[in-house]
Fold each of these.
Amino acid sequence: MVDYTKYVLKSKEELEGLLAGKDNFFVVACNKCFKEFNTTEEPECGELEAIAQAQGKHITGTAKLDFLCNKVQTEKKLAGIVPEGTENVLVISCGLGVQTVADIESVPVFTATNSLNYIGHHGMALTKKTCGACAQCYLNVTGGICPIVDCTKSLVNGQCGGAKDGKCEIDPMKDCAWEKIYQRLEKQGRTKEFLDQPIQLRDYSVNDVDTIKAYVEEARAKRYEGFYGGVHPTENKEYTEHLALQKFPEPDTVIIPLAMHIGAPANPVVQAGDTVKVGQLIGEQAGFISAPVHSSVSGTVVAVEPHTHPNKGPGVMSVVIKNDGKNTLHESVVPNKPLEELTPDEIIDIVKEKGIVGMGGATFPTYVKLKPGKPIDAVLINGSECEPYLTADHRVMLEYADDIVFGLRAMMKAVSAPEGVILIEDNKPDAIALMEEKVAPYDNIRICAAKTQYPEGAEKMLIKKVMGRAVPSGKLPADVGCVVSNTSTAKAISDAIQKGMPLVERVVSVTGEFIAKPGNYMVKLGTNVQEIIDHCGGITGDDVVLKMGGPMMGAPIKDTNVPIIKGSNGIIAIAADHTEEKECIKCGRCVDVCPMELQPLDIYKYAQLGDTDTLLKLNVMDCFSCKCCEYICSSKIPLVSKINAAKGMSAPLLKKKSGG
């Protein structure tokens, strides 16, 4: 494998000169990127320590980190480990890493390397670009601030005299780099040292700076603030975003699984030969984390028997009902009292009894979220629908806006939340405009229009974007004062309160390049997936992958003879990907895009080694399988399946450590 390492240790003579007159060094070394990934240590750190010790210098400690240029990760790893008494920090890395450490530490920071061998590749850190790859590093002289990048004119001998109020005369939005350099050197007591330096001239022939600059800018072009990480896959919403909802034709038979939620499957309360009506209870809740199941049609129960589940596979107990086509409502389907008259406990009971679960795909029983046991500041509605292709929630917002607002108000009352927020990505301007109009009468509800970014709809990302709060590892949204729900869930709560209707149908997007007639449909739970595909003209291709849900987190459909369930927001037909997996090249892109701030390549490697202790230290259990790492992986490694295996491997140890 070609080693695209971006630094080499300075010569012994240069290092001896650098160490002269200084002592008490802490050494930070970056494990090189763009090379074969292994767990062996880089040699440079040991070489530098040997030279320092030969000069009688004291090393207060060392740290060897991956991707030093990743400030979010580096700041965490260096926190509290630099010992007291450290007077100087020596960094072994490329210019990006040196500046990252210099920005974090308060003592003088020096580079022990020369960044001489840039060859058209560059660290993929998606933080602010701080290295111009000039191969003539000035960081030791300028306190770890690069004059080539930070100075608009790339001056190397001091400021031009044109700065005003600390801002550059060319770019008034940019701080003067040389004022920042002087301020840092003054803080470190190094101004005299700087003034005694000989003038350095820049040799533009050393490297093709423009090529590297263009490469880096392209790699970072789609970076967006709001939450750490994330990716920007092609949206592909154009197939169905403009298509109004249609009611899917009545199915002849429905197969309704008793496990359409996280937790214990419901227990059947009907048997073959029973007559049932729309909204009638057919499966009762079997535990605290569970949900009841209701009939989506009126007709006759044909069987209560195991059938194939779209997510869980074969053998899931289900109720098979022959539809009589009459849609006769059950006597229990009657409107409740007005929202103003309902107590919080009554709202929670309705949500529980009507079988409402999270309809964004997770299917967690919603009533449990509405009993957080701690103060809640805000209820957040996820209208981002950040998965490519899917437009079900978009159409729900356009066609059931009043119901969404009603459902949100009900949840706010249930948890005594003073604020409600609906987040909608800016690729849905029509939904933003309509929802802003609908919430205008309510002072305590607002719309948050956010720049499109995957996986913005994940609970912890949504909270960070809307509330600026980070949910700690192992904690829940309620721990930071938030409850998060989906737009379709809010609509279902409205139906439950205003109509008395349980969750018996949902909107499904049927879309993708290989669906003949894409559309958005209101579909009764238990409807056969193959019937839906046939209604949409079938599949128009051979090398096609079918998924239930979006392309990122959706599950492949291996058997189309399965039913629509409460979490089925889409059926997509997309091109199969036959890219072959290759060895990890340690480019670091997966670390930069992981929204949970994990290190997927390390998790992958230590899972291969079976090192569960290290996996837990890497917070492997925080992964929620968003597939950002897999999407961006240069080597096309199926990281999510490997991380899920690592979670399974680590779960028994975590349970043991937590006393379970």
Note: Confidence is low (pLDDT under 50) at residues 116-127.
Amino acid sequence: MIVERARPRSDSCRRKLVTAIVKTVTAGLVCCALLCFGKPTSAQSSDELTATVLDSAQFAEQLLSIADICDRYELPAQAELTRRWQSPNLDGETTLYLPKPLWDETQASKLATSWARRFNAARRQHAAHLLQAADQWIAQDETAAYRMVWHALREDPGNERARQILGTLAKAADVRPKLTRGRTAHPSFGWPAGTYSRIQTPHFLLTTRGDARASRRLAEQLEQFYALWSQTFFAWWCPPEVLKNRLQGASAPWPKHRNLEVVLLKDREDYIQTLGGNEGHIGVSVGYYSPDAKQSFFYPSAELDQTLYHELTHQLLMEATRIGAQADAGTDRELWLLEGIALYMESLAERDGYWTLGGIDAPRLQTARYRGVRDGYWPEWSTFHSGNLESWKRDPEISRLYAHAVGLSHVFLDRLGNAARDAYLKELASVYQNQASDDRLLTFLAQDEARATERYQELLIVQESQFKDLLQAARQPEELVLCGSEFSAATWRSLEQMNGLRWLDVSFSNVAPGDLSWLSEASSLRRLSLEGTSASNEVMARIQPLAALEELDLSGCPIDDAGLQRLAGHPSLETLWLTDTQVTNDALDILKTLPRLKQCDVSGSRIESAAWQAFLQQHPRVNRGR
């Protein structure tokens, strides 16, 4: 028997064979993935999928299952998005919602298309549950029911029932603004025809001298904020029974008021020229609400978003609620409540498909924590509580008053429970109404002021469980004050995950030198405080590479001349605190190498007074002390 030996395949044949094998394997993987995701859905099968209702736990389980399949079939972007879709329930935060589009179901690959269809179907199923939950909650908590309707619209922006319930509000959240050029001179400001425009939205009238793009963006932000604000202050905004009737299919109208007037100026100079003659302190502001004119004024700036939320809160509480606000509210008493709630609303932040309000990482709260915990700042309650506009303007510590107002507002609204929150809002309403004060808010902290001070500070300090939740949510705050916190070494080391920090304060915490091994990689840091910690010379080696660092507080740390030598020639350092350190007169030669040094304190160190005075005379640009 003759056996014929197989002939060697040509390169061309090999390539064809490999290609065929790859196609077969890929087809098998796709089929397998489609079985896991579920078959691609036609319009009919999509309706069948949506017929199933997913509560929050089931929705979370479904999202996790979809994300795991994405991992298995190498769809990393889809896996990450799916896992992050459901908002975490962080301590002290309120979650709010706006509509988010469903994902395109005609994507480039079959796997991505199958993911989009399964993901969209799960969202629709959860929206159906949320609307059922709203029907059940309306009798006991109208605000919660209202937020559930918005949440449903976020999951399923085309949901007919959710859109019917919200009516014009749903359309306002997706407003497409159009500019109309002013054809005559402006009646109030005298601007010539053609030098300004107007944009009419469902709830606002925007007069603008800014460019078209910035003006349209602002108009969209105004309506978005209105929808989020209405979810926050629903009980003050909407009369009873309106939402209940709309849930039942009735056409009960939402609250109506005159369109809120907002003015966008060209730039800072235009802003000051327009308002400077009539309003004091306008030169240091970036936005302003005039309760007399019933207008808010802004100009394009890096701080516009937070300023917008602040001033619009004043305007909406004054003009769009049922509480009967008076134009002169706050001029006689309790200005801290009016400013506190506006500062609190600055914490509004857009996340991965949802919005949050409050929370331990709120930017304004970091300064409040710094003042309250690090400085121990607490003004006498009776004086602070009764302070009015004029007394605040005269106070040289007005910035600390604002910080205290936002700190107290976060504590009452986020940390002390529903009774304290309700009492805070009740007192806020009485201030807007110019009614008699009910001075019992302090008792929600403690029965006496000394204990209330301690309790306030305790509530401001970030606990380890709170910080871990922040890490789990993959938040990237730019400012984080952790003074007084006590974490495990592993938790301190996890700070390396927050690589966008510009201000970090770990003063008077239990952080150890070994917990800061990541510090040299924190290239975005501008301010760093290690005051009152055990940070030693070895930490200085990790600070040395931080070329952008402008302020460094080493007060009370075991740092000596050898450690300080690491800072020699630092290009950006402007403020340096060496209070109660071990540095000597030799440290002055190091300070001379800092080209931008403007402020330094060496009290309590080993630097002799005469040597320090001589240094200051030779370097008049450097200010002493705090």
Note: The mean pLDDT is 90.
Amino acid sequence: MSYPFSISARDMEEHLVQEDKTPVLRFITCGSVDDGKSTLIGRLLCDADLVFEDQLADLRRIGIRGGNGEEIDFSLLLDGLEAEREQGITIDVAYRYFSTSKRKFIVADTPGHHEYTRNMVTGASTADLAIILVDSRQGILQQTRRHSYLASLLGIRHVVLAVNKIDLVDFSEPVFDAIVAEYVSFSAKLGFASITAIPMSARFGDNVVLKSGQLPWYQGPALLEYLETVELDPADKQRASRFPVQLVMRPNPDFRGYAGRIASGKIAVGDPVVVSKSGRRSSVRAIIAPDGNQISAAEGEPVTLVLADELDVSRGDMLVDPASRPFVADQFQAHLIWFDTNPMLPGRSYLLRTETDSVGATVTALKHQLNVDSFVREPAKSLQMNEVGVCNIMTQRPIVFDAYEENRSTGNFIIVDRVSSATVGAGMIDFPLRRADNVHWQALDVDKAARTALKNQKSAVLWFTGLSGSGKSTIANALEALLHTCGKHTYLLDGDNIRHGLNRDLGFTAADRVENIRRVAEVARLMADAGLIVICSFISPFREERRMARELLEEGEFIEIFVDTPLEECARRDPKGLYKKAFAGNIANFTGVSSPYEAPEDPELHLKTVGQEPATLALQIEEFLRRGMEEKQRLA
């Protein structure tokens, strides 16, 4: 890459102004492994004279194919991870910025391996266009279909079908035509606005930057020419203004500003705005940018807005155009892409994060899974890694959003595991569930405090957890009898009894077990609200579901009791003959044998049952409750 030795200050200023006005195209490269994605972008940068001499020298030093000193391995410009260079594959998403006189570009080179689908989703989430590579020798593969479907799902509407390695099939027009016909046929239902097919050889540069003389039958543009001229959304298409508040600025009592990045549209001084959650109205008094005050700001600009009125606005709120307001709801349908090796289970509690908000959320229903290879809807009870499903999601409080197809910035979210803090899924919101508009909390005159006062007790949920045969039900039954003699109002929810009625429709898969505990936790919450001491005896093998039950209740109201009995002792007791069947393989998903049990890490009570009588252990729990009640009365 070279530049003139001298340039006037005026020319430089004009150049920078023009550069700032140059439109930006974000695109990704994707496809199957070894289709040549990294090589294509490396060749594009080199042939367009967009690589520095020292980078080329480095490539010549470490990237000579076969060590013969004749051919540069252009893929190494993007495959920066040591593991990628060793394996010859792309693992991470490699971003590169470059520009020509006509356009600026941000390209994401995404992995081709199936297990790195999440990385491909990351790269596609902000892209305007996808270059989908196909090896001329292999044609359309499963990953071609998968990546095309995901590109469509993520809102990409323009596709370049790069039929690569055309030199290895003797620059054959029939081979090219057959691949294009097959791709156009299967992608017809994906809703792409345009599909442009280009035959090329990334290795030798045919049709990458310049038209190739080896392909006289091809009359279309070379890749760079197409990227420079492709028309995306019309310039006059104006989306509604959206300003998610990321930070409230209060450097002194006289100043209140709201910092963030404009997600869509434009905002100008004097424009009316609405706080999306509260509905409070104001107008923009000032717009403060990094370089000072300005009259207006557009999509993508980081600014601080100062309003004409003092309003209650916090992180997670969104300032919007009053004439085009987003949805505010706690229930919605979404397409969900699952990333984690542990499956997504409806009923399990996760964290849902938007651009500025974070809230507890549960998948209330998995309506169907989408087969990304055949595009067929299939029934499913869970989502495995890299699978896509259509779900109903409920959040603990309302969030602000648009439909993803209308606004990608405000219609997306990620799902985070509460324990590991790992991002386990990504979603695109379809629409709010209308039933959320019809269901509201009804104010009641008699509350929990009044009910517990009448019973002269503190409501609580005593959650017994442990292996089958550990003694949970026996101890729980003894405890209820003891509390009853003390005049306490109780109710015992037992795992087996519940499955005869409320949960008779559920089996013992991981998904059904999550739903089993979710229902029980909701019933226990209602009973605690009635002022009862609720005794729950359930294996409840997963920590996440016990955490979910705890979070439904008030602080200190959930008491986890770990009935700790070794597996060998439980199997020796085997009161129902279940262990014998499980060890023989006649019972699937049996906790402790063919399904895991996640022991509590910090329970309120840890009962070791070996050598202890159930009545003695019940007395320990009753004493724990009595001490807690006395402490509460003392503090009151």
Note: The two ends are 76 Å apart (CA to CA).
Amino acid sequence: MEKAYRLTIEGQVQGIGFRPYIYRLAQKYFIKGYVLNSKKGVIVEIQGKEKNVDKFLAHLHKNPPALSYIISFKIKQIPCKNFSNFEIKKSQDIEKGFIFPPADISICPDCLKEIFDKTSRRYLYPFTNCTQCGPRFSIVQKLPYDRQNTTMSKFKMCPVCEKEYNLVLDRRYHAQPNCCPVCGPQVQMYTLPEGAICQGKEALCSAIKLLEKGEIVAIKGIGGFHICCDATNKKAVSLLRRWKRGSNKPFAVMVKDIKTAENIVYLTNPDKKILSGIENPILIVPKKNNRFLSKEIAPENNYLGIMLAYTGLHHILLSKRVKIIIATSGNIKEEPIITDNIESIKKLNTLTKYFLIHNRDIYQREDDTVISKTLYGYLMIRRSRGYVPFPFQTSGAMNKILAAGSDLKNTFALSDKKGIFLSQYIGDLENKETFEFYKNTIRHFIQFLEIKPEVIACDLHPQYFSTQYAQTFSKEEKVSLVKIQHHHAHLVSCMADNNLKNEPVIGVCFDGTGYTADGTIWGGEFLIGNYDYFERKGSFLQFVIPGGETAIKQVWKTGISLLYNTFGENIPDVPFIHNINSKDINTTIRIIEKNINSPVSSSAGRIFDGISAILGIKKDISFEGEAAIFLQMRSEKASEKLKYEMELTENKGLLVLDYRAMIKKIIKDIKNKKQIEDIGLGFHLALAKGIKNVVEQIRNQTGIKKVCFSGGVFQNNLLVKCIIKEFRISTFTLYFHKNFPANDGGISLGQIIIANNIKDIY
């Protein structure tokens, strides 16, 4: 007796060889019917003997395709039909529904082997791919994921490629970016002032020779341009560092393989698994002392961001003498990563006259994903290539919402009934080009995912570009606007990241800036709350930020403010004071006293800045978080544990963590010539102990024992280590971010969940 069923499979099931897998499975179990892609997902109709159909379904449930992620598997029995065989049908748009767009996937072993096989027609062809690897999100213009809907549509397949594409049992069956040297994209070496000088293998050889000579080359990849040079060539690295206009922001490096990586960083087996996964992120791990690597790659940093070559192009470039290259984002300052050939030549020509470009258009730019190794596991620092646009699944249904995110390290988010889609890393919206990228990407996501928002959520800060965008969007699209407090969004983001239910938790939210209705700047907050509400239970003792925004770069001003808050006018004579113009110091003190452009703050991020300045580590910074990072790096080298205390007081029901006694002791130890590293570690330990003291008081008041840590400050591995050790003997359960950034890159996740829980706006 025969049975027939219709299967509707939703999730990440397109662009990963799902249909050929179903076809082969049907052949194995003598099944008739068809499989096709649709906007509903993958549709399968199967018919055969009952025992064969049962085996087919059991196999598919137990062993789905390797790259698939199934979230819905619906089976409906249907009448038997006159199927004569099993076939793969053309994609259909007739069924409105939902599919997961695929992320970009690093090159697979089979394609890599082909590239270096001299007998292969794809020998040294950098765009080699199959259904198990290659560009996806970066080239897709609309769904479903078919070639005509990608930037590969302009490349007509040659007869051999077309045969592969249509041969069901070939691994390139319906591999949408399928191509070869005859019919596909080509690399080209473009130099100034000559112009295009060669292409194909000759261009690759030219780029390899330039890297070997110590030249800087702009190289177009999957999601944008990298600026590359030999990481062992100190002269080239120094030139690149100078071009970055004095920024000490660490460069990432790309290596040929794990063996090469182990020469420069310490790796565990889990680290190797992360590095060599299909996403191939940058992984920040402890670095080894390497004389042959330039110190300017990551100045005064104990860690190195490292990634493996993830495209055929990268593997070819690293196949000769140069095994380690700097591969930093190709952009100007905080502008978005460059994707266009002409724009790269126009904007990067002050750095290099060598451009390895290609003619496969990048439709969606995306930076490399960055992950940091921590004591508790791995922390997503920047979520982008390889992870986007894969959605976050919630336990309950989501409404159609757009969350605008924050202004720094922006991501936005879109949701509907099937989940939450966070965008790739956008960047800092104060930059004009980044803001345009932000607006364009929102438009693309709305069209791409076919989600028309009914609500838009944003931050409370009225001056945020994201808030202003949300207000305009709300008016133009006639949708409800929801404004959400910054640290509540942080708290909920961490809860969601850990799949917590909608239950009260304690939130420790430490960052640089968070706007509140009373005009003060939060940033060192202890909250209780859930997806529906929050209440502020504790905070750092407030201080002023003299000069407002200027103090973010000139962190010595925050140092002066902390000293003034501790000692009054009698600021102690410590070494860092001598490196600042006395007139500037006096002006800063007057600004504080007269409250001129000096917002009140409880920011933990600014406290890190101030302590870094007081210890003489950093008085000015070239990128966000630099003072805190350098403080952490120095503190990790401590040889003695100095003990400091933060006093816990109460003011009008608010627990206040008072740092002044600690600062007095720090000043005393500076004058007694204690090691800066030891003082820095003492500060971290005191902060961890202070956090525990506040959390214990909140637990005593509320009975809550779950604690969520969110905000950019908790990217500090040393602080997290101190916290975990401080809480090791306690009844608390600690939750840190894992899959989404603790920094403002995770804000949109919190915003969208909070907005979804406001019942009266739907």
Note: The chain has a mean pLDDT of 94.
